[in-house]
Amino acid sequence: MTVVRTLALIFALMPSLLAQDISLDSSANKVGESAISIENYADADVVRYSVVTLRGLVSNGDSGIAVVENVSSDKETRIVRANVIQGRFKALVELVPGRNDFLIGNGSLRLNFSLIYRRSFNENVVRLISFVPSDSALSNGGNDETLIPMEDGEIVRKLVVAAKLWQTATAERLFDLGYGRRTFALETDDTGEVVVWRKRGKRLAKEYRELPPRERFNTIRREVLEDSQRIGELVFFVCFDSRAKNESDFSSKDAIALGVDSFSLLDAQRTIAWPESIAVVASSFSDSSPIPAIYLKDSAYRGTRWALTASTLGAGWHELSHAFGLKHTSDPSDVMSRGFDRFNRVFMVYEPKCAFHDGLIVGEKDNVGWSRENAEILLRSKWITE
To answer: Which of 21-35, 73-87, 182-196, 254-268 has the least mean pLDDT?
Structure first.
């Protein structure tokens, strides 16, 4: 009877013993070892946006690679590799609805970590629109000028990635100022996917170009708003592709970047160097090759692809912030000043070489965001929630 009871006890304890064994194999930081830690999220934190930046520390890691695997995901971003520099790394990870379990490794070190993604309940959202002239090759033909949900394509992918980056950058910067991880919500369909709309304008490409920038902005704004419902619940980010169907290149007259009163507008020329997936964001911010002659130039004159990606994505964040009611500032680190040129620093711990330096390590003091005054204005917006 004693043997039977002993065997029963062993079998009863076996699941627990196995679980402990798995934990010791795959987890973490054993006693006496150096450790991996995440400094900007606690384990099992709940977030309301689908892309997050994990800021990690490796106590014995001056270099090497941090491998971050979202074992709950089957997306192409399931595994992310981030450079560890002076014991620090940043990893841009994509979440799936519900619990996301991560296994983070650096050399022999392991950390199990989780985040919970739940969709935002805020009905006040940012709407993304691709606006084209009536003679555009992208206008879907015919005379239909109503808003149409777009299918997958280059501009859709770029706008969705950009908007998710602005969303997580907003949350990170407000969190660093002590206001909690608050940000805006994006308009989504019933499945939770971000929606991008197409709007066909009433004018020819050359007619929009002939308008002064402010008048062009007001004309496009008027045409978009007259075809939109729920206007009081929406902030608009509109990307304007002014090319006619027989044009492949952009004109210097295309350039426009403005935002005010819940409406922001950016020309499509600035999206040339934008990444089309979250999986390539880090490589886009690491590309120090020269800017091709056919591209517009980096507005901070740094002369590299990563810099063009940073300044143009930052310009979109800047104009969207105008739409939320923010004004220009003189603080060089503020996104409402020239801080937007360094948008890459929200996501990277290293900035590659450019015309002004041979590469530099980015500390938290080098990050960009908002002044406290601007942040408090932003927090009063109905679009910014937990």
So the answer is: 21-35
Q: Residue 381 is which amino acid?
A: S
Give the global pTM. 0.89
Q: Which residues contact 145 (CB under 8 A, 6 or more apart)?
A: 134, 199, 200, 201, 202, 223, 227
For the sheet containing 36-38, what is the strand order?
36-38, 51-58, 88-94
How far lies 105's CA from each of 6, 88, 89, 108, 370, in Å? 39, 13, 12, 7, 33
Bridge partners of 351, per DSSP, are 360
Q: Hey, what are 184's tokens?
A: 């805006």
CB 21 within 8 A of CB 38: no
Return the structure tokens found at 27: 């987890």
CA angle 45, 324, 257 (to 5 degrees): 115
- When the candidates are 3.40.390, 3.40.50, 3.30.70, 1.20.120, the CATH number that belongs to 125-379 is 3.40.390
pLDDT in tens, 293-346: 767 788 889 999 999 999 999 999 999 999 999 999 988 889 999 999 999 999
Length of the chain (residues): 386
213 φ, ψ (degrees, to nearest 5): -50, -45
- Beta carbons of 300 and 307 less than 8 angstroms apart: yes
Pick the CATH number of 36-117 from 3.40.1180.10, 3.40.50.12710, 1.10.10.10, 2.60.40.10: 2.60.40.10
CA distance 26 to 21: 9
The full set of domain ranges for the chain reads 36-117, 125-379
pLDDT tens digits for 154-206? Answer: 999 999 999 999 999 999 999 999 999 999 999 999 989 999 999 999 999 99
C-alpha to C-alpha distance for 305 and 114, rounded to whole angstroms? 34
Give the span between the Cα atoms of 295 and 254, in whole angstroms. 13
Question: For residues 244-276, b (16+ Cβ closer than 10 Å) or e, as one string?
Answer: beeeeebeebbebbbbbebbbbbbbbbbbbbbb
